[in-house]
Amino acid sequence: MSDVAVLGLGAMGSALAGALLDGGHAVTVWNRTVDRAAPLVARGASAVATAADALRAAPVAVVCLTNDAAVREILAGAPGTTLVNLTNSTPEQDRNLADWAAGQQMTYLGGGIMAVPPMIGTPAASVFYSGDADALERHRGLLERFGRVDYVGADPGRAAVLDLALLTAMYGMFGGFLHAAALIRAGGLPVVGVEPAITAWLTAMAGALPEMAAAIDSGDHSETTSAVRMQALAYPHLLEASRESGLRTALVEPMGDLLSRAVAAGHGDADLSVLADLLRDGRVPS
Ligand code: NDP
Fold it and tell me: CATH 3.40.50.720 in the chain, residues?
């Protein structure tokens, strides 16, 4: 029996299996497209022909496929095995899979990888896990090969909540950067020259997040030097400048819309953090 099986050898699954091999573990691998296992077999992994074989080859099986539909296609019951699902999933998909696993006498850990493949196995990587706490402790040594282990609770969907929340923040940042880059190019400047200023500005603005987080948790949005009313007046300028430059405004319109709605709903004097309340409660009339 191997120490661990890895199912799915795309960019991420291959990095995960590689980190386990680097850690000296006996690793069984499986991938739908057989050729992708070859580099790992050359490094000492054992390849098996079917997903069912892989799930029975070790006490713990790490699954990392494109999405939940793919996971559902390949899963087979393997009583006694701990299933660690590192496939990007919704919380509900993880909960349903945990129920399925329980029905197969398997234990389940949902996971969310906060890393890109080259970061796996380095101190920069971390992975959220949720689900069976005993299984996590039993396999902690293996899981630490990927990066920091962040156990976030017994609800199998909790890791996905946090994974998707962090990805949401990331896409907000990238979306903002991409629109800014288009605006800079339309203004006749190379993005490379302005990027250091953007990075410095984003870093400075990230410093506001702890206070915003506290305001969102407490519901008290009164402390601010940059009230929503001021921001709602300034925001249309970036939309106008974008339109004048012939840019699509799809990435930046929703924030302007929400700012105007917040003012209309009587939150003009509040901090920007109030927008989180408005999103959550659906209090702003559409
Ligand atoms: P890839 O596209 O590189 O690999 C996808 C994997 O899924 C391949 O092994 C592919 O097999 C397999 N697959 C897809 N559909 C099926 C199916 N129907 N049946 C069996 N196998 C299937 O993706 P990544 O490895 O990059 O991503 C894997 C997961 O990791 C995703 O959920 C992703 O969101 C997550 N992730 C990825 C990160 C990244 O930066 N790459 C970062 C953090 C998380 P085949 O080779 O046969 O096509």
Answer: 4-154
pLDDT tens, the chain, 286 aa long = 999 999 999 999 999 999 999 999 999 999 999 999 999 999 999 999 999 999 999 999 999 999 999 999 999 999 999 999 999 999 999 999 999 999 999 999 999 999 999 999 999 999 999 999 999 999 999 999 999 999 999 999 999 999 999 999 999 999 999 999 999 999 999 999 999 999 999 999 999 999 999 999 999 999 999 999 999 999 999 999 999 999 999 999 999 999 999 999 999 999 999 999 988 766 545 4
Q: Say which residues have a Cβ less than 8 Å from residue 49's Cβ, sequence separation at least 6.
A: 30
Q: How far is the CA of 182 from the centre of ligand 1 (A)?
A: 30
Domain with CATH 1.10.1040.10 in the chain: 162-281
Q: What residue's CA is closest to ligand 1, atom 48? A: 33
- Full-model pTM: 0.94
Give the angle 254-259-262 at the CA atoms, nearest 5°.
125
In CATH, the number for domain 4-154 is 3.40.50.720
The structure tokens listed for 13 are: 């699954």
Q: Whose CA is nearest to atom 31 of ligand 1?
A: 66
> What is the crossing angle of helices 91-103 and 158-186, to 10°?
150
CATH architecture of 162-281: Orthogonal Bundle (1.10)
